Amino acid sequence: MNYSLVLFAVLSVVFLGAVLWLVVLADRQRRRHIARLHRLRPDAGVVMPAPRRSSFEKPAQNGIVRLIEAELAQTNLRVSVNELVVQVSVGVLGLYGVSVLLLGLSPLLAVLVAVLLPLTLAALVLRIAKARYRATFTENLPEALDVFARGLRAGRPVSNSLSIVVESSEGAILREFSRCHNEICMGTSLPESLARLSARIQTPEVSFFAVATALQAETGGNLIETMEGLANQLRARRQLRKKARALTSEVRASTIILASLPFVVLLAIGVLNAGYLEPLYNDPRGRIMAAAAVTSIGVGIFMMTRMGKLDV
């Protein structure tokens, strides 16, 4: 027990040092962004000098801090890099203490569990948040294109038309088109700004929007008709996707019912007669049979999910 406590203390100190180092790097990255904004502001009274970049700061700019910022920028999560690092770190440290002191796991196994579980959970939360953010943006994109086309038809320039979209929208549309509007006001062309939008929101609809606008800008044509036609196509695609989801609802419901039925029966047997299930985890043959059953259930869920998925 003393050995576990000593190892727990040493790993805690090392881990807290690594967390503090990441927080310092994230704060330096934030300060560089603020300094860059002050240099670009025309009403700033003093032009701030460019901060010196030492050799060890360059990897931080292109490393894990920048990657986390890019991931958070594609979600609606109201959390900064520092807050995310601190939350994950507290989760890792708390889980390690519970694993060693309460569950009695070996220190090395507890380190593996305590690191992998919070990181996997954080990655899963980021992935779900990104998927919802993209779905929300794609859902409201046709209406935003209609507003953009009406602004152009009224004789407004591109920047003013984008400002109308920003004023009449909310959520993901507001956030992304605000970025495009600011980039265009800073001198970026419309195709380049939409190309950056396509890199942030990697969906077929946004890619189609960016490519169509870039082709129109290079070859010439009526941008208003392009936006209106694109909005109609995206709206028809959205309706087709909803229809396909309605047609495959039976398959998805069957997948959920059939996948949950074995576990419901297992839970019921465990409550009524727990000793009946002992061969499944005490006998090696029972463990092999249980692993084979779980594997077959997973394969069945995967196959039914693929059968009920339509790419529209």
Can you describe this structure in just a few lines?
The chain is an all-alpha fold and 312 residues long. Helices cover 80% and strands 0% of the residues.
Number of strands: 0
Shape: flat
Main sheet makeup? none
Structural class: mainly alpha
Number of helices: 13
Q: Which range best describes the helical content: under 10%, 10-25%, 25-40%, 40-55%, 55-70% or over 70%? A: over 70%
What does this 3D model show about the protein?
This protein is mostly helical. The chain is 80% helix and 0% strand. The chain is built from 13 helices and no strands. Helix 5 crosses helix 6. It starts with a helix and ends in a 5-residue tail after the last helix.
Please write out the topology.
Blueprint: H1 2-40, H2 58-61, H3 64-72, H4 81-102, H5 107-153, H6 158-167, H7 171-185, H8 190-200, H9 204-219, H10 223-247, H11 249-272, H12 278-282, H13 284-307
Summary keywords:
312 residues; mainly alpha; 13 helices; flat
